[in-house]
Write a structure and sequence with these properties.
The chain has 102 residues and is an alpha+beta fold. The protein has helices at residues 17-26, 91-98, and strands at 33-35, 46-48, 54-58, 65-67, 87-88.
Length: 102
């Protein structure tokens, strides 16, 4: 009797910016902001919490989104602080960027 072993390759699912936003909201983040790569500040697209913690970022080589460890620690924002110069990541902004491959 022959035994055959088949190694199943996990199916890779592309994680979109909308999926990242939904996951972060499910973890308890109420508002999020989108940071574009800029010289001297960051080298990739990032999703930022109100207290300037990176909760997700985009891999520059593959374009995949990664949820960062800080995403597991949502902090309340009772004073309504918003990061300066960043665009809030709402349903509308996510869908606007979806055409650009995010």
């Amino acid at each position: 009797m022959h035994r055959y072993s088949f190694a199943l390759q996990p199916k890779k699912t592309e994680i979109t910016l909308d999926m990242v936003r939904q996951a972060l909201h499910a973890l308890g983040h109420q508002r999020l902001w989108f940071r574009h790569p800029t010289e001297g500040v960051c080298i990739t697209h990032q999703v930022i919490s109100w207290d300037d913690r990176i909760v997700a970022e985009r891999n520059r080589k593959t374009g995949e989104w990664l949820i960062c460890p800080d995403a597991n620690l949502p902090h309340t924002n009772p004073e309504g602080i918003t990061p300066d110069g960043l665009e809030e990541l709402t349903w509308f902004t996510v869908h606007r960027y979806s055409g650009a491959g995010f």
